């Protein structure tokens, strides 16, 4: 999937002649800059895209683990957060949003 996305981006850049004529106010992405620098046939943009996805997953997992660990370690903070969520009815709002309209 990532390889196909990078190839699509490379094809768009090649079709535009290496320029971003359609969206003059749009900033060129990091991936597009890398494709322009390395060329559309290079594997470097694909590896860079994989690294970005893995870094995002790793960061999210580490943050979740950090939060869960600290909530289990500090019971007073956990009870404070539970009270806050119950008081503001966060759980019921989340359930309503997940069900969708209707």
Q: Could you characterize what this model shows?
A:
The chain is an all-alpha fold and 102 residues long. The chain has one domain. α1 packs across α3. The longest helix has 30 residues.
Question: Helix and strand layout, with pairings?
Answer:
Blueprint: H1 2-15, H2 30-38, H3 44-73, H4 75-87, H5 90-99
Helix pairs in contact: 1-2, 1-3, 2-3
The N- to C-terminal Cα distance equals 34 Å
Structural class: mainly alpha
Helical content, roughly?
over 70%
How does the major sheet shape up? none
Rg is 22 Å
Question: Which features would summarize this protein structure in a list?
Answer:
0% strand, 102 residues, 5 helices, single chain, mainly alpha
In short:
This protein is an all-alpha fold. The protein is 75% helix and 0% strand. The protein has one domain.
């Amino acid at each position: 999937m990532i390889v196909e996305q990078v190839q699509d981006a490379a094809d768009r850049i090649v079709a535009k002649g290496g320029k971003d004529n359609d969206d003059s106010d749009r900033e060129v992405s990091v991936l597009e800059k890398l494709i322009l620098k390395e060329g559309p046939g290079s594997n470097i943009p694909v590896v860079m895209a994989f690294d970005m996805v893995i870094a995002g997953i790793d960061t999210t997992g580490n943050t979740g683990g950090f939060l869960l660990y600290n909530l289990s370690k500090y019971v007073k903070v956990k009870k404070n957060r539970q009270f806050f969520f119950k008081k503001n009815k966060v759980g019921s709002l989340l359930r309503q949003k997940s069900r969708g309209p209707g």
